[in-house]
Automatic annotation (TrEMBL):
Alphabetical list of Pfam families matching this protein: PBP_like_2 (PF12849)
Keyword Iron-sulfur listed: no
Protein's name according to its UniProt entry: Phosphate ABC transporter substrate-binding protein
Source organism per UniProt: Flavobacterium cellulosilyticum
Keywords attached to this entry: Signal
Domain PBP, first and last residues per copy: 36-273
Domain of life according to the entry: Bacteria
Chain segments annotated as transmembrane: none
Family annotation (InterPro entries): PBP_domain, Phosphate_ABC_transporter
Keyword Signal: yes
Amino acid sequence: MLKKSKYFVLLCIGFLFVMCNQKEKKNSNNESILKGSTTVLVDETLTPIIEDQVEVFESKYDAKIDIVSLSESEVILSLFKDKSRIAILTRNLTKEENKIFEQKKIIPKITKFAIDAIAFVSNKSNNDTLIDLKNVIEFLQGKSNSNIKGLVFDNPNSSTVRYMNELAGINTIPEKGVFSFKTNQDVIKFVAENDGMIGVVGLNWLSQPSPIMKKYMANVNILSVKSLTDKNYYFPSQNNIAEGKYSLARELFIINGQGFSGLGMGFASFVAGDIGQRIILKSGLLPIRIPGRKINIRNTINNEK
């Protein structure tokens, strides 16, 4: 009886193994690096730049990529629940997250493709366009600070909140004087309509405002920031980020855990390639590598009119 039970268990394991292989083969057959369809989980703070990348990628290849914009915590949760095995984050995977992939016998391919930043915005009626990062941190730590009336975040589970919490050395944002909504668009809209509040958003939403948001952008100021180690204030520009002067910069990553040569690999290569990097440069973010410029040199000058 015991031998029959062992035989039955082995038979079941073998069946499951064959089915998994067939499923993986089916995925590979229906999807390649440049064709097929897939879903990409995107940190909501990066939605505008990824929408641009997807639009150009789809125009060049027989591919369909669905973007699902979520908070950072929701992206991670969906990634490990296999809602999709492709995610775009403002940070790399942690050791614990890598271990989850190891348990699934998958080595994720990580592609760093750009540098973004966290930016502060205030209502246009506020003539002061400068903010001291030290004051922001003290406000988050619950210390008395008359310079800041209130901070507005996108989502309690967002990458922006996580970044600022780590910077301030706190686990959760305080309830007093701190407000949170759902998206970066909500933050910009609220600040545009309310004087005295400081919004904390991803730079991508400011450098590439949607048509709907342009009327609100006209009523906000992007603030220059004084870092913890420098007496000067720096605007979140491409140049200041590239020179390391703006203190709230963050690297962006594509996490590909598909485990086969699918659209995750093709899309990551595209974004990190020449066309993708040019899209990033044009967006106002900083590409990982600056695209080259072609210069045509002529031996003669044609003066014909």
